[in-house]
Every structure is written in structure tokens, then in C-alpha cells.
Write a structure and sequence with these properties.
With 345 residues, the protein is of the alpha/beta class. The protein folds into two domains: 167 residues, Alkaline Phosphatase, subunit A, CATH 3.40.720.10; 159 residues, no CATH class. Helices cover 35% and strands 21% of the residues. The protein contains 13 helices and 13 strands. The strands form three sheets. Strands 2-13-12-1-11-9-10 form a seven-stranded mixed beta sheet. Strands 6-7-3-8 form a four-stranded antiparallel beta sheet. Helix 2 crosses helix 12 and helix 5 packs across helix 8. It is globular.
């Protein structure tokens, strides 16, 4: 079947703000797709204290990553290593992100790692500085890209970790790793923090108005044998840790380019995530309207013209998700007036 799944994380605003935001939002294409479509699955509620966000759980399941034994971040490290061009040696691997943690009034808060603006030269310098601390205690470390490194820690299998997106903007104590290797990780994390405290690189960053790289975040523990399963003929918009599914990923073209393809495809539109995590709802509103104009409107036109048999929206928030499927046939239900109310479900 020639269809397109469109995953839009944080398209569902918080319940307490939904009415006001949706009253202001001008997104006619999204309103049409929502009103003329039908629920492809029941609305799902998610634990707001889950160690991964709803869209992260959806992606992990969709691409066949094993379910963790307990509430934990997706089992993504080994698959992400392959997505970045590395073959993981046998053992247990975790994802590492250089990070910034700041002091709030009475607790520590993790800044969204996507906002760190760390380039390759800076990341390589920090990696070279920290790597001996890992190897001295028997841990292999691998450089993936500027934002993503990896550590092998076989004895830490079962360590319960949180994705950086789930922990961003919150008290890190709630989201810190728990289980096998917990104390060893905290000790290593503290040593890296002390090592980086004296780095001139951080002084230079702060002089330029950038945040210091003063900590690391660990998550995604997986055995080296774990790999993602191709789920689509093509995937567009994958970035960050979703490069774990890189075997099916291509650089996102225009909406018209996506419509010219064939088979079951995925488009990830994650431009709302950073704004939602920062609770910048005015900018969220603007970005939603941009997504509607630049992506959803031309894709809706392609559905009408027969380029797709169906467009399936997967919309998530901080604690829920909905799936709406719209076909050329359901678009003819003219009595259903365009509406964004399903975003407040």
C-alpha cells in the first residue's frame, strides 16, 4: 500500500493550555486531516515519569528494538552505533552525550542536549580529554559524532537509564541511572566533570555565550547483537538517536519529493520538540503553523491527487499519543468540518 506515516512529537499540547493554543493556531491542512480521518488506534496514555517520551517508545517499537525488562530508555545503543558507521564489539553498550547540567534553586537540571551547539573540533577535544578516564578502568569508548559517543560496560547490563529528552528541563535526580553499575557510573561521571572543569574550551564557550560542557548523560543500554528492523521503504527526517534506524533513512527532500516515492514511508517532523521541552508555547504555535504550511498542506494535496492511498498521523505529547488515518475516501466526508479539536484529546 502506498502510504505515509507522519510522526509529529509534541503536536499534542498540554491539557491545561490546549484550548487557548488551538484557538489561535492556523493550521488548515492539519485540521482537515484530523477531521476527515479516523482513529487508527485508541488514544494512549503514557506515564509522565517514563524514562522515554511517547514518540521515542513508538519509534523503538516500530523499528523492532526489544522491549526493556523494566521501565527504561529504548535499547538503542548498538543500533545507533551501526547507524553512525561502527560495528559494536561483543558486550553491553550505552550511548553517551556530552551535556550541560545547571543548578536551579534546590536541584540540578539537564539542558536539552540538542541545544548544546557542540561542533566536531570541540567534541573531539573533550573526547580525548575524557577517554583515558574510561580506559583506565577497563571501559572501551567510541566516538560517534559531535553529540554522540558510546561506552562498553558489560557489568552494567540491566542499568535503568532515561533518554536525555525525557530528563531535559527536570530535576536530574529523578532520572539518574538505577541498578547495576549505578555507583560506578556516578563516580566516573564525577571524574569527567572534574576533568572538564579545567578545560579552556569551556571558558572559550562561555565567553561566546554558549553553555559549558560540564557533564555527560548515559542511556540506551543494549547488547551488541541488538539491531533495528527496517520498517519502511524509505524514512525521512531522522536525526539524533533516530539514526539508529539509518539503514532505511535518506536525506529529507521536499514534500513533493516524498510524494513521488512508493511503498510505506515515514516522515519525522520533530521541530516542535525543543520548543515544547523549553515550554516556549508562543514559538511552538508559530512552528506548528510553519509545519502545516511547508509540509502538511502539500502532502494533503498529494493525497487528494492520488500520490498516497493514506496519510497516517502519529501525534504525541508529554504523556499521550493519538493516531489518525486519512484516505482519499474519507476526505470526501464534506460534512466533517476541519477542526484541531482532536489535538486536545
Amino acid at each position: 500500500m502506498n502510504q505515509l506515516d507522519i510522526l509529529i512529537p509534541f503536536a499534542l499540547p498540554p491539557a491545561e493550555m490546549a484550548r487557548d493554543l488551538l484557538r489561535q493556531c492556523q493550521a488548515p491542512a492539519l485540521a482537515m486531516l484530523l477531521a476527515r480521518g479516523k482513529h487508527a488506534a485508541p488514544t494512549q496514555s503514557h506515564d509522565p515519569f517514563s524514562r522515554a517520551l511517547p514518540h521515542e517508545h513508538w519509534l523503538a517499537q516500530r523499528f523492532g528494538l526489544p522491549q526493556p525488562a523494566q521501565d527504561c530508555s529504548p535499547v538503542a545503543a548498538a543500533a545507533l552505533m551501526r547507524g553512525l558507521g561502527h560495528t559494536p564489539a561483543a558486550g553491553q553498550w550505552f550511548v553517551l552525550h556530552p551535556a550541560h547540567i545547571h543548578v536551579a534553586r534546590d536541584h540540578l537540571v539537564l539542558t536539552d542536549v540538542a541545544q548544546l551547539q557542540l561542533d566536531e573540533a570541540q567534541s573531539q577535544k573533550l573526547f580525548a580529554s575524557a577517554a583515558p578516564l574510561f580506559t583506565e578502568i577497563g571501559h572501551e569508548v567510541v566516538y560517534g559524532d559531535a553529540r554522540t559517543w558510546f561506552i562498553r560496560a558489560d557489568a552494567w547490563a540491566g542499568l535503568r537509564t532515561s533518554t536525555p529528552s525525557a530528563a531535559s528541563g527536570r530535576n536530574v535526580d529523578i532520572w539518574m541511572p538505577e541498578g547495576p553499575g549505578e555507583l560506578a557510573w556516578r563516580k566516573l561521571q564525577n571524574e569527567v566533570q572534574m576533568q572538564w572543569f579545567s578545560e579552556s574550551l569551556n571558558e572559550e564557550r562561555e565567553m561566546r555565550g554558549l553553555k559549558a560542557v560540564n557533564s555527560m548523560w548515559i542511556w540506551g543500554g543494549a547488547d551488541a547483537a541488538v539491531s533495528a528492523t527496517p520498517a519502511y521503504a524509505a524514512s525521512y527526517g531522522l536525526n539524533g538517536w533516530t539514526l539508529a534506524f539509518g539503514a532505511a533513512a535518506v536525506t529529507p527532500p521536499t514534500a513533493a519529493g516524498i510524494a513521488s516515492g512508493s511503498g510505506h514511508r515515514l516522515l519525522l517532523l520533530d521541530q516542535l520538540v525543543e520548543l515544547a521541552l523549553a515550554e516556549e508555547w508562543g514559538l511552538w504555535l508559530q512552528r506548528m503553523e510553519t509545519l502545516d504550511r511547508e509540509w502538511l498542506a502539500p502532502l494533503l494535496a498529494s493525497l487528494r491527487s492520488g500520490a498516497f492511498d493514506a496519510i497516517n498521523l502519529i501525534l504525541t505529547g508529554a504523556d499521550k499519543s493519538v493516531q489518525i488515518s486519512t484516505t482519499r475516501g474519507t476526505l470526501r466526508k464534506f460534512w466533517r468540518k476541519p477542526s484541531l479539536q482532536r489535538l486536545a484529546a
